[in-house]
């Protein structure tokens, strides 16, 4: 819960929960401000008996959380396995501890401050049970992390240290004590270096998920070590500005069976330099190993990737279920050519994100209307225009021949696009993000959007989409639960009517800056949008507060005129 609750109301709720397994008390200012929550011993005992099944507790973003409140809250959760203190104002400095605990004893928790030393005492007592800790966006430093990972009997499965900018190599090196770690999040922690990655990749053999997105000083040399993690299933290296396309290719797509002695000496130094390290790395032919076989989730957002890197990734990780290539800088790598290679190779994909990849157009998404989509053409294909003009593919219900589709064929002469692979090959697609792909039009929506399992679709700021494409989309994708059409300037009331009349599972609808949507669309939503839970109509200038009446009692609405 993240809402305004009095302490009395929260206690009453907790007394009524008999088999609760997960409890999030996040950003709950009112019930913590007085410091009196659970100060009644009888209440604490009753709730503790009710919450024996509780295994996950989050106290995130609570500025009024103190040692005293923390101790009371964890006392009612005797069997915790997961604890989140994300974005809490924890004092890690020993001077603060000495100020509030002059006798160096924690017998009675302070009501004025939340200290790491108090939290650490709890972790020591609960060490055999605790498996997941979250210290995201806190001031945890090297000394605190060293104390944490060295706790006797503590064998963590996951540790989240996102935005922990006090951490650097000496502290991160101590993570080697937690050999059991499967999930490690160091994203946005600006002092993570190549040397940090070396320690992690050499020693944490059981890692299945590693997130180093926005680690600003990680270079090609650092990510080259990731192939050591043979059990890795999830990798996020998004937004690391020093990574090159060649470095990503070498790290993810090439296998080096043994380090040279020179490379080992380089890595022993605290300061690792990309160029010198790469010069000492012996590169061999691409070859599949257990790293290739296990990786299922890959996030490469906001990187400078070329076409060769995208092709290499598609060929190397055919079992990928999640791929994020959004905001690839200047969209060098994500083109009509490479998107078709993705369609050809990555048929197991469930989530595909290519946000703001302007070089992807209808030509790439539709596969040019060529036949034999499931069986690639090996002979030299006829001209793209001849293939498109008037061809009907009955299996997929595609009829190509409109003026817009002829324009696709004409433009295709200028680029070498392998024919025959379209979005339709991704049969199990559940989430697709094409937002800000300005060259995607109704042609794609009409011809290659038929997905029985598609749940989330983002077409925000695809400004060429109209009611024609949305008519086809809503007929052929009935499972959609979250639809984003923000910034689609040609979306009108009739589009909203199609959506709410046909998409009966729809829970979230985003219409920000859809200037042609009026109160008439809201009438359609009131009548047919029975499952809708969230509606974003910010900056929809033709919508009025009067029109929103009747929706506010059952739908969370984001609304502003500006």
Report on this structure.
- There is one protein chain.
- The protein has 562 residues and is an alpha/beta fold.
- The protein has a domain at 1-130.
- Helix content is 33%, strand content 10%.
- The strands form three sheets. The chain has a 17-stranded parallel β-sheet, with no helix packed on it.
- Helix 1 (7-16) packs parallel to helix 3 and helix 21 runs parallel beside helix 22.
- It is globular and about 80 Å long.
- The model is unreliable at 255-267, 269-288 and 369-400 (pLDDT under 50).
Keywords:
two-stranded parallel ribbon, 33% helix, 24 helices, alpha/beta, 562 residues
Element layout with pairings:
Blueprint: H1 7-16, E1 22-24, H2 29-33, H3 41-50, E2 56-58, H4 67-75, E3 82-84, E4 90-91, H5 94-100, E5 114-115, H6 116-125, E6 132-134, H7 142-149, E7 158-160, H8 169-173, E8 183-185, H9 194-203, E9 209-211, H10 220-223, E10 234-236, H11 245-253, H12 261-268, H13 274-279, H14 290-294, E11 297-299, H15 307-316, E12 322-324, H16 336-345, E13 351-353, H17 362-366, H18 384-388, E14 392-393, E15 398-399, H19 403-412, E16 431-433, H20 442-447, E17 456-458, H21 467-476, E18 482-484, H22 493-502, E19 508-510, H23 519-528, E20 534-536, H24 545-548, E21 556-558
Parallel strand pairs: 1-2, 2-3, 3-6, 4-5, 6-7, 7-8, 8-9, 9-10, 10-11, 11-12, 12-13, 13-16, 16-17, 17-18, 18-19, 19-20, 20-21
Antiparallel strand pairs: 14-15
